[in-house]
Amino acid sequence: MTDATPTTIPIAAPAIPSPDALISFESVRLGFDEGEILRGVNFRVAAGETKVLIGETGAGKTLALKLAAGLLSPDSGTVRVLGQDLSLLSERELFAFRRKIGFVFQEGALFDSMTVGENVAYRLREDQLHDDEIEPRVREALRFVELEHTIEQFPSELSGGMRRRVSIARALVDRPAIVLYDSPTAGLDPITSQTIMTMILRLRDSQGVTSLLATHRLQDAFGLANYRFDVAANRVVHDEDGGLAEKGHSTHDTRFVVLRNGAAYFEGEPRALAASPDEYLKKFLV
Amino acid sequence: MPATDPKLLLGSDHSALSARLLDIVKRWVLAVQTYALLAARSVTNIFSPPHYITDLFEQMDVIGVGSLPIAIFSGAFIGAVTVLQTAAQFARYGQTQLTGDVVAVSLVRELGPTITGLLVAGRNASGIASELGSMLVTEQVDAMRAMGTDPTRKLVTPRMLAAVLMLPLLVAIADFSGLVGGFVIASTSQHLGAVQFWTRAINALDFSDLMQGLVKPVVFGFILATIGCYQGLNVRGGTQGVGRATTKAVVASSILILVADFFLDKLLLFLSGHTL
């Protein structure tokens, strides 16, 4: 096993298409007036895998998530999600596609004119489900993030951490196959960050959701790799296998992608990143 | 050739200027294209599901009922001022009985729709732009899209429809309160009788006047809602950008309403057989 060797993917090298990958980026480029941000990004996320996108501010992490959600289109390259090339979908098909994924925005992006319950119920109402079905599902999702008591409150009455937990509840209420997290702990105090990470671990390990998480906080990334949620014990426990299912008893696969200069600079296992002799990655670890 | 050659510098300035002008023109063309697409989609959305009926009624309440005081007060005082201005002129020729005619025709054809349109635009185009702009900068619009909802269906079409449906009603109310305001002034300062004023006012109006009075607010409502939505959904630069978008929405919708008023006048006069 080459734990100590970082898997550095050269810029613009196309990823090998993988039939079981739920998300794959192949030579994806995207730019705006101020210049090109993504310059040939390649990575893929297998079913059940947790991929953590790490990078400095402005590295293009949020753009990568928005591309995966079909909220942006690449200038070139291919983004495949759930087996569909998103650039081939019409706008109407894209709206239908997005219902299959959950997106947790950096600041929560809750609808401030709606109560917490209405926010979580939003997607179910869009699907025109009956109130009798919506109510228990909303309560179940809010119970999952331990905020059932806030169902009648407005987002402005909640703290920043609570808003993000509601955002997680809103993302999971329709039981999506993939959840995308955009810097879910950015700007939060350490204790609240830990609570958010516990929710993410719990969602991953109790429901086997495939996740793509963007963060600049390496402690969050290693937290996902080194801990798992023990459903039977109902608590977070240390994962001796370092987040790799094939190594033993771990229930999840967690791998990292480091974005640098608009491309995937590193893609590989958490331990490989920690042991990497690469100067940039070492600087990042400090 | 030295870099300080005046001809070279002049040439460089010219090319920089033309590049800048070209950039400005491109931005204008892009803005017009984006607005036209948004406005067209707000209409085509009506013909396919999903429809957001609750949002439509909510917006009808905000735009229509919320603007009612503006329509009543502005209408009443415009009617009163029209009587003050015209009655004094008519009195010089002993034709004060024509006051009712003038107030009715000017209110229904021009002043009612235009001034109500401008005031409602001032209130609602700014409100729409700031609401949607705030949603955009806090990623609520992206969240909506991420959950499979088309923001043009959920946010733009209900506002456009609400404005198009409510503005004619507001104008009708403004016209009526204008006639009442005009009558109060006519009866107190010109001592015109109620029967004389109201009979002449109603008889002065024909079908083409009513058509003008009802077609104009439909167009004005469309303009104020779509401009407000366009500015709100194209905010750049955070909360400062929201402020700028709000101002732009009021200015652009007011100017467009006045421009549309001129062309609608020409068109409706032509259709009603007047060749002006």
Description:
The complex is a heterodimer of chains A (286) and B (276). Helices cover 33% and strands 27% of the residues of chain A. Chain A has 286 residues and is α/β, with parallel strands linked by helices. Chain A has a domain at 1-100 and 211-227 and 239-286: 3-Layer(aba) Sandwich (Rossmann fold). In chain A, the strands form three sheets. In chain A, strands 6-7-8-3-11-12 form a six-stranded mixed sheet, sandwiched between helices. In chain A, a hairpin with a 2-residue loop joins strand 4 (76-81) and strand 5 (84-85). In chain A, helix 3 runs parallel beside helix 5 (160-172). The two termini of chain A are 25 Å apart. Chain B has 276 residues and is an all-alpha fold. Chain B has nine helices and no strands. The interface between A and B is medium-sized, with 22 and 14 residues.
Task: Record keyword descriptors for this entry.
heterodimer, A: 286 residues, alpha/beta, Rossmann fold, 6-stranded mixed sheet, 4-stranded antiparallel sheet, 27% strand, disordered N terminus, B: 276 residues, mainly alpha, 9 helices, 0% strand, elongated
- Enumerate how many helices of chain B there are, as a single number: 9
Characterize the overall form of chain A.
Answer: globular
- Global outline of chain B: elongated
Segments of chain B where pLDDT lies below 50 for 5+ residues? none
